[in-house]
Amino acid sequence: MAVGNVPTTGDPVLADLTGPGGAFEIVTEDVLGVPLQVYKNRLQSLREIIGMADARVGIDFLVQGDRRLTYDEHNALVRRVAASFQELGVGHGDRIAILSANNVEWVVLFWAAAAIGAVVVPLNAWWKTEELEFGLRDSGAKLLFCDTKRWQAVRDRVDAIPELEHVFVMDLRGDGGFADRRRRSPSLRGRPSTEEPDGAARPGTDLLGEDPGALPDVAVAEDDLFAILYTSGTTGRPKGATLTHRQALANLQNIFCLGIANASRGGEAAPELSSDVQSATLLVVPLFHVTGCLSTMMLCYASGAKLVLMPPGRFDPDAAMATIEREKVTSFGGVPTIMWRIVESPNFEDYDLSTVVRVSYGGAPAAPELVQRIHERFPKVRKTLATAYGLTESASVATSNTGDDYRTHPDSVGRPAPTL
Q1: Which residue has the higher pLDDT, 257 or 10?
Q2: How far apart, in whole angstroms, are the C-alpha atoms of residue 44 and residue 241?
Q3: What class is the 2-41+241-416 domain?
Q4: How far is CA 14 from the centre of its chain?
Q5: How far is residue 176's CA from residue 185's CA, in Å, rounded to a whole number?
Q6: Would the pTM of this model clear 0.85, i.e. be above it?
Q7: For the segment 95-106, what is each residue's pLDDT rounded down to a tens digit?
Q8: How far apart are CA 121 and CA 143, in angstroms?
Protein backbone atom coordinates (compact mmCIF):
# COMPACT_ATOMS: atom_id res chain seq x y z
CA MET A 1 0.00 0.00 0.00
CA ALA A 2 1.18 3.57 -0.63
CA VAL A 3 -0.15 6.94 0.38
CA GLY A 4 0.82 9.44 -2.32
CA ASN A 5 4.52 8.87 -2.84
CA VAL A 6 4.92 7.59 0.70
CA PRO A 7 5.19 3.80 1.07
CA THR A 8 3.46 2.68 4.24
CA THR A 9 3.89 -1.08 4.08
CA GLY A 10 6.64 -0.86 6.71
CA ASP A 11 4.59 1.40 8.95
CA PRO A 12 1.28 -0.23 9.88
CA VAL A 13 0.44 2.60 12.29
CA LEU A 14 0.62 5.27 9.61
CA ALA A 15 -1.10 3.00 7.12
CA ASP A 16 -4.00 2.53 9.55
CA LEU A 17 -4.31 6.25 10.26
CA THR A 18 -4.32 7.27 6.60
CA GLY A 19 -6.12 4.27 5.12
CA PRO A 20 -9.85 3.88 4.44
CA GLY A 21 -11.86 4.87 7.50
CA GLY A 22 -8.77 6.11 9.32
CA ALA A 23 -8.72 9.30 11.35
CA PHE A 24 -6.49 10.87 8.67
CA GLU A 25 -7.86 9.07 5.63
CA ILE A 26 -6.20 10.08 2.37
CA VAL A 27 -8.06 10.01 -0.93
CA THR A 28 -7.29 11.05 -4.49
CA GLU A 29 -9.02 14.19 -5.72
CA ASP A 30 -8.69 16.52 -8.67
CA VAL A 31 -6.78 19.63 -7.61
CA LEU A 32 -6.60 22.32 -10.27
CA GLY A 33 -6.75 19.66 -12.97
CA VAL A 34 -4.18 17.35 -11.38
CA PRO A 35 -5.06 14.15 -9.43
CA LEU A 36 -3.51 14.49 -5.98
CA GLN A 37 -3.80 12.58 -2.75
CA VAL A 38 -5.28 14.74 0.00
CA TYR A 39 -6.86 14.34 3.41
CA LYS A 40 -10.49 13.39 2.99
CA ASN A 41 -11.66 15.35 6.03
CA ARG A 42 -10.11 18.80 6.13
CA LEU A 43 -10.79 22.47 6.65
CA GLN A 44 -11.28 24.60 3.56
CA SER A 45 -9.44 27.78 4.58
CA LEU A 46 -7.53 29.38 7.44
CA ARG A 47 -10.63 31.45 8.25
CA GLU A 48 -12.08 28.33 9.86
CA ILE A 49 -9.18 28.16 12.33
CA ILE A 50 -10.03 31.69 13.46
CA GLY A 51 -13.61 30.55 14.08
CA MET A 52 -12.38 27.60 16.13
CA ALA A 53 -10.22 29.91 18.25
CA ASP A 54 -13.23 32.08 19.12
CA ALA A 55 -14.32 29.44 21.64
CA ARG A 56 -11.15 29.83 23.76
CA VAL A 57 -12.32 32.80 25.79
CA GLY A 58 -9.97 33.87 28.59
CA ILE A 59 -7.21 31.43 27.54
CA ASP A 60 -3.73 32.83 26.91
CA PHE A 61 -2.56 32.77 23.32
CA LEU A 62 0.27 35.27 22.84
CA VAL A 63 2.89 36.29 25.40
CA GLN A 64 5.94 38.49 24.90
CA GLY A 65 7.51 39.92 28.02
CA ASP A 66 4.75 41.75 29.89
CA ARG A 67 2.47 41.78 26.83
CA ARG A 68 -0.22 39.13 26.96
CA LEU A 69 -3.23 38.38 24.78
CA THR A 70 -5.94 35.80 25.29
CA TYR A 71 -7.47 34.08 22.27
CA ASP A 72 -10.56 36.28 22.38
CA GLU A 73 -8.49 39.47 22.73
CA HIS A 74 -6.35 38.41 19.79
CA ASN A 75 -9.37 37.57 17.65
CA ALA A 76 -10.96 40.94 18.45
CA LEU A 77 -7.82 42.62 17.13
CA VAL A 78 -7.93 40.40 14.04
CA ARG A 79 -11.50 41.52 13.32
CA ARG A 80 -10.59 45.19 13.79
CA VAL A 81 -7.56 45.02 11.51
CA ALA A 82 -9.38 42.94 8.88
CA ALA A 83 -12.18 45.52 8.75
CA SER A 84 -9.63 48.31 8.41
CA PHE A 85 -7.93 46.49 5.55
CA GLN A 86 -11.23 46.40 3.72
CA GLU A 87 -11.85 50.11 4.32
CA LEU A 88 -8.50 50.82 2.75
CA GLY A 89 -9.48 48.83 -0.31
CA VAL A 90 -7.13 45.97 0.54
CA GLY A 91 -8.86 42.66 0.00
CA HIS A 92 -8.88 39.23 -1.58
CA GLY A 93 -5.66 38.49 -3.45
CA ASP A 94 -3.91 41.72 -2.46
CA ARG A 95 -0.41 41.42 -1.03
CA ILE A 96 0.18 42.53 2.56
CA ALA A 97 3.86 42.70 3.49
CA ILE A 98 5.01 42.34 7.10
CA LEU A 99 8.51 43.57 7.90
CA SER A 100 9.16 43.20 11.59
CA ALA A 101 10.86 41.31 14.35
CA ASN A 102 8.69 38.75 16.12
CA ASN A 103 5.92 40.53 17.99
CA VAL A 104 2.21 40.46 18.77
CA GLU A 105 1.37 42.71 15.82
CA TRP A 106 2.99 40.28 13.37
CA VAL A 107 0.63 37.48 14.41
CA VAL A 108 -2.49 39.68 14.39
CA LEU A 109 -1.71 40.98 10.90
CA PHE A 110 -1.13 37.46 9.61
CA TRP A 111 -4.56 36.24 10.67
CA ALA A 112 -6.31 39.44 9.63
CA ALA A 113 -4.90 39.00 6.13
CA ALA A 114 -5.88 35.32 6.05
CA ALA A 115 -9.41 36.24 7.14
CA ILE A 116 -10.03 38.40 4.06
CA GLY A 117 -8.24 36.19 1.56
CA ALA A 118 -5.30 38.55 1.20
CA VAL A 119 -1.80 37.20 0.60
CA VAL A 120 0.71 37.64 3.42
CA VAL A 121 4.27 38.48 2.39
CA PRO A 122 6.56 37.95 5.42
CA LEU A 123 9.74 39.81 4.50
CA ASN A 124 13.05 38.74 5.98
CA ALA A 125 13.72 41.15 8.84
CA TRP A 126 17.47 40.62 8.38
CA TRP A 127 17.53 41.76 4.76
CA LYS A 128 19.31 44.92 3.67
CA THR A 129 17.55 47.84 1.97
CA GLU A 130 18.09 46.62 -1.60
CA GLU A 131 16.77 43.16 -0.75
CA LEU A 132 13.71 44.61 0.96
CA GLU A 133 12.94 46.86 -2.00
CA PHE A 134 13.22 43.82 -4.26
CA GLY A 135 10.79 41.84 -2.09
CA LEU A 136 8.24 44.64 -2.05
CA ARG A 137 8.42 45.09 -5.81
CA ASP A 138 8.57 41.39 -6.66
CA SER A 139 5.57 40.49 -4.51
CA GLY A 140 3.50 43.45 -5.67
CA ALA A 141 2.79 44.46 -2.07
CA LYS A 142 -0.13 46.85 -1.73
CA LEU A 143 0.28 47.42 2.01
CA LEU A 144 3.38 47.35 4.20
CA PHE A 145 3.46 47.06 7.97
CA CYS A 146 6.87 47.35 9.62
CA ASP A 147 8.46 48.01 12.98
CA THR A 148 10.42 51.20 13.58
CA LYS A 149 13.84 49.62 13.08
CA ARG A 150 13.02 48.21 9.64
CA TRP A 151 11.22 51.41 8.66
CA GLN A 152 14.57 53.14 8.71
CA ALA A 153 15.82 50.65 6.11
CA VAL A 154 12.98 51.23 3.60
CA ARG A 155 11.65 54.73 4.29
CA ASP A 156 13.58 56.27 1.38
CA ARG A 157 12.41 53.60 -1.09
CA VAL A 158 8.67 53.20 -0.56
CA ASP A 159 7.59 56.26 -2.54
CA ALA A 160 9.22 54.82 -5.65
CA ILE A 161 7.19 51.58 -5.53
CA PRO A 162 3.96 52.27 -7.46
CA GLU A 163 2.03 49.20 -6.26
CA LEU A 164 2.60 50.09 -2.60
CA GLU A 165 -0.38 52.22 -1.58
CA HIS A 166 -0.32 52.03 2.23
CA VAL A 167 2.50 52.01 4.76
CA PHE A 168 2.00 51.55 8.51
CA VAL A 169 4.73 51.67 11.11
CA MET A 170 4.35 50.27 14.60
CA ASP A 171 4.74 52.78 17.42
CA LEU A 172 5.33 55.68 15.02
CA ARG A 173 3.85 58.13 17.50
CA GLY A 174 5.17 56.33 20.55
CA ASP A 175 1.64 55.32 21.55
CA GLY A 176 2.29 51.63 22.04
CA GLY A 177 1.45 48.49 20.12
CA PHE A 178 -1.80 46.67 19.46
CA ALA A 179 -1.80 45.02 22.88
CA ASP A 180 -1.28 48.17 24.97
CA ARG A 181 -4.63 48.35 26.74
CA ARG A 182 -3.88 51.76 28.25
CA ARG A 183 -3.81 53.41 24.80
CA ARG A 184 -6.90 54.68 23.04
CA SER A 185 -6.61 53.83 19.37
CA PRO A 186 -7.87 56.20 16.66
CA SER A 187 -10.62 54.63 14.59
CA LEU A 188 -10.24 54.42 10.85
CA ARG A 189 -13.97 54.50 10.44
CA GLY A 190 -14.90 56.94 13.17
CA ARG A 191 -11.97 59.35 13.06
CA PRO A 192 -9.39 58.83 10.31
CA SER A 193 -5.92 60.00 11.13
CA THR A 194 -4.84 63.04 9.11
CA GLU A 195 -1.43 63.32 10.71
CA GLU A 196 1.42 62.04 8.54
CA PRO A 197 4.35 62.18 10.95
CA ASP A 198 6.87 60.41 8.74
CA GLY A 199 6.31 60.88 5.04
CA ALA A 200 4.19 58.12 3.52
CA ALA A 201 3.86 56.17 6.76
CA ARG A 202 1.00 56.14 9.22
CA PRO A 203 1.01 54.80 12.78
CA GLY A 204 0.25 51.11 13.01
CA THR A 205 -2.47 51.81 15.54
CA ASP A 206 -4.46 53.55 12.79
CA LEU A 207 -5.40 50.03 11.72
CA LEU A 208 -7.44 49.59 14.89
CA GLY A 209 -11.02 50.65 14.31
CA GLU A 210 -14.00 49.53 16.35
CA ASP A 211 -14.60 45.81 16.65
CA PRO A 212 -17.26 44.89 14.07
CA GLY A 213 -18.05 41.72 16.03
CA ALA A 214 -17.55 39.42 13.06
CA LEU A 215 -15.01 38.84 10.32
CA PRO A 216 -15.73 40.45 6.95
CA ASP A 217 -17.91 38.22 4.79
CA VAL A 218 -15.35 37.01 2.27
CA ALA A 219 -15.28 33.74 0.35
CA VAL A 220 -11.86 32.08 0.63
CA ALA A 221 -11.16 28.83 -1.24
CA GLU A 222 -8.60 26.23 -0.25
CA ASP A 223 -6.56 26.73 -3.42
CA ASP A 224 -6.37 30.51 -2.97
CA LEU A 225 -2.93 31.85 -2.17
CA PHE A 226 -2.42 32.81 1.44
CA ALA A 227 1.30 33.64 1.51
CA ILE A 228 4.45 34.35 -0.48
CA LEU A 229 7.52 33.33 1.52
CA TYR A 230 10.94 34.09 0.17
CA THR A 231 13.63 31.43 0.06
CA SER A 232 17.20 32.06 1.14
CA GLY A 233 18.37 32.88 -2.38
CA THR A 234 21.56 30.81 -2.33
CA THR A 235 21.85 31.36 -6.08
CA GLY A 236 20.76 34.75 -7.34
CA ARG A 237 17.92 36.67 -5.78
CA PRO A 238 15.54 35.06 -3.27
CA LYS A 239 12.59 33.28 -4.87
CA GLY A 240 9.05 33.90 -3.71
CA ALA A 241 7.40 30.56 -2.92
CA THR A 242 3.62 30.76 -3.23
CA LEU A 243 1.61 28.79 -0.69
CA THR A 244 -2.11 28.05 -0.63
CA HIS A 245 -4.57 27.57 2.20
CA ARG A 246 -4.68 23.89 1.20
CA GLN A 247 -0.92 23.52 1.72
CA ALA A 248 -0.89 25.25 5.10
CA LEU A 249 -3.78 23.14 6.36
CA ALA A 250 -2.21 19.93 5.03
CA ASN A 251 0.98 20.78 6.91
CA LEU A 252 -1.02 21.06 10.13
CA GLN A 253 -2.71 17.72 9.53
CA ASN A 254 0.65 16.14 8.70
CA ILE A 255 2.05 17.30 12.04
CA PHE A 256 -0.98 16.01 13.92
CA CYS A 257 -0.94 12.71 12.03
CA LEU A 258 2.78 12.08 12.57
CA GLY A 259 2.46 13.04 16.23
CA ILE A 260 -0.42 10.66 16.84
CA ALA A 261 1.43 7.91 14.96
CA ASN A 262 4.43 8.39 17.26
CA ALA A 263 2.19 8.15 20.31
CA SER A 264 0.59 4.99 18.93
CA ARG A 265 4.01 3.37 18.56
CA GLY A 266 4.60 3.72 22.30
CA GLY A 267 5.96 7.23 22.30
CA GLU A 268 4.21 10.30 23.58
CA ALA A 269 2.22 12.87 21.70
CA ALA A 270 3.63 16.37 21.40
CA PRO A 271 2.23 18.66 24.10
CA GLU A 272 0.39 20.67 21.44
CA LEU A 273 -1.63 17.53 20.71
CA SER A 274 -2.62 16.98 24.33
CA SER A 275 -5.95 18.19 25.69
CA ASP A 276 -5.23 17.58 29.38
CA VAL A 277 -3.52 20.90 30.07
CA GLN A 278 -2.65 23.85 27.88
CA SER A 279 0.80 23.53 26.38
CA ALA A 280 3.16 26.47 26.01
CA THR A 281 5.66 26.77 23.17
CA LEU A 282 8.65 29.10 23.19
CA LEU A 283 9.34 30.47 19.71
CA VAL A 284 13.00 31.31 19.14
CA VAL A 285 13.06 31.34 15.32
CA PRO A 286 11.70 34.16 13.12
CA LEU A 287 8.04 34.28 12.22
CA PHE A 288 9.03 35.19 8.67
CA HIS A 289 10.50 31.68 8.35
CA VAL A 290 8.24 28.80 7.38
CA THR A 291 9.09 26.90 10.58
CA GLY A 292 8.26 29.79 12.88
CA CYS A 293 5.09 30.69 11.03
CA LEU A 294 3.48 27.49 9.75
CA SER A 295 4.82 24.80 12.06
CA THR A 296 4.96 26.75 15.31
CA MET A 297 2.70 29.79 15.43
CA MET A 298 -0.04 28.25 13.30
CA LEU A 299 0.15 24.93 15.15
CA CYS A 300 -0.23 26.69 18.51
CA TYR A 301 -3.20 28.72 17.30
CA ALA A 302 -4.95 25.69 15.80
CA SER A 303 -4.40 23.49 18.86
CA GLY A 304 -5.14 25.98 21.65
CA ALA A 305 -1.56 26.27 22.90
CA LYS A 306 0.13 29.35 24.34
CA LEU A 307 2.76 30.88 22.06
CA VAL A 308 5.58 32.62 23.93
CA LEU A 309 7.70 35.03 21.90
CA MET A 310 11.26 35.90 22.83
CA PRO A 311 12.17 39.59 23.10
CA PRO A 312 13.52 41.01 19.81
CA GLY A 313 17.27 40.83 19.35
CA ARG A 314 20.01 38.25 19.45
CA PHE A 315 19.30 34.92 21.09
CA ASP A 316 20.21 34.91 24.77
CA PRO A 317 20.15 31.47 26.46
CA ASP A 318 19.62 32.99 29.90
CA ALA A 319 16.64 35.02 28.67
CA ALA A 320 15.26 31.87 27.03
CA MET A 321 15.63 29.77 30.17
CA ALA A 322 14.13 32.51 32.36
CA THR A 323 11.15 32.67 29.99
CA ILE A 324 10.74 28.88 30.06
CA GLU A 325 10.65 28.98 33.85
CA ARG A 326 8.27 31.96 34.09
CA GLU A 327 5.76 30.79 31.46
CA LYS A 328 6.05 27.07 32.29
CA VAL A 329 7.00 26.30 28.71
CA THR A 330 6.38 22.70 27.66
CA SER A 331 7.92 22.76 24.19
CA PHE A 332 10.72 24.63 22.47
CA GLY A 333 13.34 24.21 19.79
CA GLY A 334 14.94 25.93 16.86
CA VAL A 335 18.23 24.93 15.27
CA PRO A 336 20.99 22.72 16.74
CA THR A 337 23.15 25.78 17.56
CA ILE A 338 20.46 27.13 19.86
CA MET A 339 20.13 23.77 21.58
CA TRP A 340 23.89 23.60 22.16
CA ARG A 341 23.88 27.06 23.77
CA ILE A 342 21.16 26.02 26.21
CA VAL A 343 22.41 22.58 27.22
CA GLU A 344 25.98 23.88 27.60
CA SER A 345 25.03 27.04 29.47
CA PRO A 346 26.99 27.43 32.74
CA ASN A 347 23.79 28.82 34.27
CA PHE A 348 21.56 25.90 33.28
CA GLU A 349 21.05 24.73 36.87
CA ASP A 350 19.88 28.19 37.94
CA TYR A 351 16.52 27.73 36.21
CA ASP A 352 13.59 25.39 36.73
CA LEU A 353 13.04 23.86 33.29
CA SER A 354 11.13 20.83 34.52
CA THR A 355 7.98 21.73 32.54
CA VAL A 356 9.72 20.98 29.22
CA VAL A 357 8.43 17.72 27.78
CA ARG A 358 9.27 18.24 24.10
CA VAL A 359 12.31 19.53 22.24
CA SER A 360 12.48 19.77 18.45
CA TYR A 361 14.81 21.31 15.93
CA GLY A 362 15.79 21.29 12.28
CA GLY A 363 17.63 23.30 9.66
CA ALA A 364 20.94 21.44 10.11
CA PRO A 365 22.20 18.00 11.15
CA ALA A 366 22.41 17.36 14.89
CA ALA A 367 25.45 15.57 16.26
CA PRO A 368 24.80 12.43 18.34
CA GLU A 369 26.55 14.24 21.21
CA LEU A 370 23.85 16.91 21.13
CA VAL A 371 21.11 14.30 21.32
CA GLN A 372 22.84 12.77 24.35
CA ARG A 373 23.20 16.15 26.08
CA ILE A 374 19.52 16.98 25.49
CA HIS A 375 18.50 13.66 27.01
CA GLU A 376 20.68 14.40 30.04
CA ARG A 377 19.42 17.94 30.51
CA PHE A 378 15.75 17.26 29.68
CA PRO A 379 14.95 13.69 30.79
CA LYS A 380 11.25 14.07 30.01
CA VAL A 381 11.86 14.44 26.28
CA ARG A 382 13.23 10.96 25.53
CA LYS A 383 10.02 9.95 23.77
CA THR A 384 9.30 13.31 22.13
CA LEU A 385 12.70 14.61 21.02
CA ALA A 386 12.26 15.36 17.33
CA THR A 387 14.03 16.66 14.28
CA ALA A 388 12.46 17.50 10.97
CA TYR A 389 13.36 18.32 7.41
CA GLY A 390 11.30 20.63 5.28
CA LEU A 391 11.36 23.47 2.83
CA THR A 392 9.46 26.64 2.13
CA GLU A 393 7.86 25.22 -1.01
CA SER A 394 6.36 22.30 0.93
CA ALA A 395 4.79 24.59 3.57
CA SER A 396 7.27 23.32 6.17
CA VAL A 397 7.46 19.68 7.31
CA ALA A 398 8.44 17.12 4.66
CA THR A 399 9.88 14.47 7.00
CA SER A 400 9.94 13.99 10.76
CA ASN A 401 12.05 11.83 13.06
CA THR A 402 10.87 11.51 16.63
CA GLY A 403 10.57 9.20 19.62
CA ASP A 404 11.93 5.66 19.28
CA ASP A 405 12.67 6.28 15.60
CA TYR A 406 15.06 9.05 16.53
CA ARG A 407 16.81 6.95 19.15
CA THR A 408 17.31 4.03 16.76
CA HIS A 409 18.05 6.14 13.65
CA PRO A 410 19.68 9.35 14.89
CA ASP A 411 21.26 10.08 11.50
CA SER A 412 17.95 9.90 9.60
CA VAL A 413 15.66 12.76 8.62
CA GLY A 414 12.75 10.47 9.54
CA ARG A 415 9.47 9.41 8.02
CA PRO A 416 7.94 11.30 5.09
CA ALA A 417 4.86 13.39 5.77
CA PRO A 418 1.72 11.57 4.60
CA THR A 419 0.98 14.22 1.96
CA LEU A 420 2.22 17.61 0.85
Answers
A1: 257
A2: 21
A3: alpha beta
A4: 26
A5: 10
A6: yes
A7: 999 999 999 999
A8: 10
